[in-house]
Write a structure and sequence with these properties.
With about 450 residues, the chain is an alpha+beta fold. It has two domains: about 210 residues, 3-Layer(aba) Sandwich (D-Maltodextrin-Binding Protein, domain 2), CATH 3.40.190.10; about 200 residues, D-Maltodextrin-Binding Protein, domain 2 (3-Layer(aba) Sandwich), CATH 3.40.190. About 45% of the residues lie in helices and about 15% in strands. It contains 18 helices and eleven strands. Strands 1, 2, 3, 6, 9, 10 and 11 form a seven-stranded mixed β-sheet that branches. The chain has a two-stranded antiparallel ribbon with strand order 4-5. Strands 7-8 form a two-stranded antiparallel ribbon. β1, α4 and β2 form a beta-alpha-beta unit. The protein is globular, with a radius of gyration of 22 Å.
């Protein structure tokens, strides 16, 4: 994302650190009365989102709620949408609702683009895994979005090739490393997986699983923990595998990577629940030859997973119909009919735990037809999603990851220095933007 210019830094920082300045503005009696009055008659809401066919899902709502009509406007995803939302908010022309990735929420809040909807969505909390709901909250009580979809991490592996080489599916990271080395010894032309320096979201999810908290607060200051013990452990583990040549060091989502998956040069993939869709196009000749298992664990007695991807439905500060918008956001992500439509029409893995099995997800993905319990197992894994802590300059940290880890992966030199540089660059950027940073 092009670097955002932060508006009202002092106020924004106070909000993110749990102060009540904006919350008080958003929840005053006068504001509540005005919102209620505005929502008493016909309401027209605009929703910026990128997931496919959300207009079809919204139409279900519109048929049952003629006084609150939602119009979906398709947008680009990721950083492009974040930039567009911030620009629109500065001009007070933002839509009522936006689809926002979890890691983008602090950036949007610090730009005063999202409204606190804690009162309006209070009853929705129990519909989601605690680790997901936590990512929509900032400060002590403020809630800025409702979880929409999630991407719990898992391990995908070629069942036929594991059998061919006498490998056992690893349940711990120690076993994972041993499996990678055992495969390389038996078949030097093959690799268990690759470390991709193009994908900071995966690395962030792996650090999340290990207990990392990359952004936290101390009083009125941000504290950056990218170089914390948990992340160091993850970086050292993967850096060691790359340095030893036990796994590949090529980026994912390239023709070469697709070929490696399709021909069996790479026989495993640490990825998220949406992986079957990728494999369908990247490795079509391997259909029916894959299995899915929980992510290997650091502590087998305390199972946990991280996330790679996922988004929320948020209400903007520009919306004149906050209550109505929050009502739609809650319906979209908790109502059984809406959730079934999200799965069918938009192809998402819903964040709501009740929708992660049965119904539209009763049948395993076609690519995993030999694993009929695919979504049952996925739902159990999703329940163990660890909390993640995001800050207002995730984009800077992610760019630094690509640069620093990219050089280290290519050189097979270990990741210690790369992690230090990523930490330093993120801290420097926060200071440059006017945020106070705890050392």
């Amino acid at each position: 994302m092009p670097h955002a210019t932060y508006r009202g830094l002092a106020t924004a920082t106070a909000v993110l650190l749990g102060a009540t300045a904006l919350a008080a503005c958003g929840s005053s009696d006068s504001a509540d009365k005005a919102d209620a009055a505005a929502d008493s008659g016909p309401v027209a809401l605009t929703y910026w989102a990128w997931a496919p066919n959300l207009d079809k899902v919204a139409e279900l709502w519109n048929r049952k709620n003629p006084n609150i009509k939602v119009t979906v406007q398709k947008q680009a995803s990721g950083d492009d949408l974040v930039t567009k939302i911030i620009t629109a908010a500065k001009a007070h022309q933002a839509p009522d609702l936006v689809q926002a990735e979890y890691q983008a929420l602090p950036t949007l809040v610090s730009n005063d683009a999202l409204a606190d909807i804690s009162k309006e969505v209070a009853g929705a909390k129990d519909a989601f895994a605690p680790g997901l709901w936590q990512q929509t909250t900032l400060g002590s009580d403020a809630v800025y979005a409702v979880p929409q979809d999630s991407g719990p991490l898992m391990f995908f592996y070629r069942t036929d090739m594991f059998q061919q080489y006498g490998l056992t599916v690893p349940t711990t990271w120690e076993e994972f490393g041993a499996t990678a080395r055992a495969l390389k010894a038996k078949a030097p032309d093959k690799a268990l997986t690759t470390f991709s320096s193009n994908d900071p979201g995966l690395f962030a999810g792996l650090a999340q699983q290990a207990g990392a908290q990359w952004w936290t607060t101390e009083g009125q200051k941000w504290k950056v923990g990218i170089e914390d013990a948990a992340t160091k452990k993850v970086a050292d583990f993967w850096g060691g595998l790359v340095e030893d040549g036990a796994i590949d060091n090529q980026p994912m989502y390239t023709p070469a990577w697709n070929k490696a998956l399709n021909t069996g040069e790479q026989i495993g993939w640490v990825s998220a629940v949406w992986a079957p869709g990728v494999l369908t196009t990247a490795a079509p000749e391997t259909k029916g030859k894959w299995g899915m298992a929980p992510l290997p664990q650091w502590d087998a007695s305390k199972p946990a997973t991280g996330s790679w991807g996922g988004s929320t439905t948020a209400v903007t500060t520009d919306s004149k119909h906050k209550a109505a918008a929050a009502k739609f956001a809650t319906w979209l992500n908790t109502d059984p009919e809406a959730l079934a439509a999200l799965v069918k029409e938009s192809g998402i893995y819903p964040a709501a735990t009740a929708a992660q099995t049965g119904g539209a997800l009763a049948k395993a993905p076609d690519f995993f037809a030999d694993q009929p319990d695919f979504y049952t197992k996925a739902a159990e894994i999703a329940k163990t999603t660890a909390p993640a802590a995001w800050g207002p300059n995730v984009n800077v940290a992610y760019t630094s990851f690509k640069d620093e880890f990219g050089k280290a992966a290519k050189a097979k030199s270990g990741f210690g220095a790369a992690l230090t540089a990523m930490q330093g660059g993120t801290v420097s950027d926060l200071k440059k933007q006017g945020f106070e940073v705890a050392q």
